[in-house]
Structures are given as structure tokens and as C-alpha cells.
Design brief:
Belongs to the TRM112 family. The protein is an alpha+beta fold. It has five helices and four strands, in the order αβααααβββ. The relative contact order is 0.27.
């Protein structure tokens, strides 16, 4: 499960739906895996406005990953400053270090095994082989 996915998941228990502490789900005992992928600058530019930045920073801090900046990067932060010798407008812009770091955290870092814990009710969702189990027992539906 990519870390990006955690930015869109909340607790499935009905009583947690109205509680702000049910988001984000907090990884516990997480075994991380890096899955190499090509950097797609356009994807990063388009996903930035959809991210819950403060919550993403919390998850990244809990996992002990490199700290994200306090404010969400702008599109300009994702492109490396152009060199004066490369003036061809048809080539794709080079990604900045910020873009590379975001790509590494959001796309390449995956939770392989562990648990996702609701901050409101404490319910734990198991993650096995990169897949989270969100099926609830009958008494919690």
C-alpha cells in the first residue's frame, strides 16, 4: 500500500465518520518497502492540491521518514532551475530535489506489513503483503 493511499483513507466504523481524529489512520508496526517507479512530474503537480498536507506530514513523521516541509510545495518547487545551456522548450523540465523526495515518499514507499490504527476508536486494520483489510466484524458494522 503506497503512502499516498493513506491520505485518502479513514476509519470504516460508522461512529468514527464524524470524528476528525479518525483521519489519518496511523501506521503501527509498519514494515516499509521501496518499490522503484519512474518519476512523473505531471502526476505530482496534479496530486499536490488534493493532498491533506498536515495529515501526510503526521504519517511521514510517525514512520520516521525524512521530514516534509511545513507548507505544501508549489508547482515551481517541483521543477529544477533550468540551466542556461538547455533552452529547448520541447523537452520535459527536470524534477527538483523536492519533487524527487515527494515521489520517493508518496509513490515508491509502501507499507508491506503492519497495522493502520484509528485515532478515534483505536480499531486496527491489518496490512498483509501490501493490502489493508477494511472488512469489519459484524458487531462494528
Amino acid at each position: 500500500m503506497k503512502l499516498l493511499t493513506l491520505n485518502f483513507l479513514t476509519c470504516a466504523i460508522k461512529t468514527c465518520k464524524s470524528s476528525p481524529s479518525s483521519f489519518p489512520l496511523h501506521p503501527r508496526d509498519a514494515e516499509l518497502e521501496i518499490v522503484e517507479a519512474d518519476l512523473n512530474l505531471k502526476f505530482l503537480e496534479n496530486i499536490l492540491p488534493r493532498l491533506m498536507w498536515d495529515e501526510l506530514r503526521v504519517v511521514v513523521d510517525e514512520l520516521g521518514l525524512p521530514t516534509l516541509p511545513p507548507t505544501i510545495p508549489t508547482r515551481a518547487d517541483l521543477v529544477a532551475p533550468s540551466s542556461p545551456t538547455s533552452s529547448s522548450s520541447s523537452s520535459d523540465p527536470a524534477p527538483s530535489q523536492t519533487a524527487r523526495d515527494l515521489h520517493r515518499i508518496l509513490i515508491e514507499t509502501c507499507v508491506r506489513e503492519g497495522k493502520l490504527v484509528c485515532g478515534n476508536c483505536g480499531h486496527e486494520y491489518a496490512v498483509k503483503e501490501g493490502v489493508a483489510n477494511f472488512l469489519l466484524p459484524a458487531h462494528l458494522v
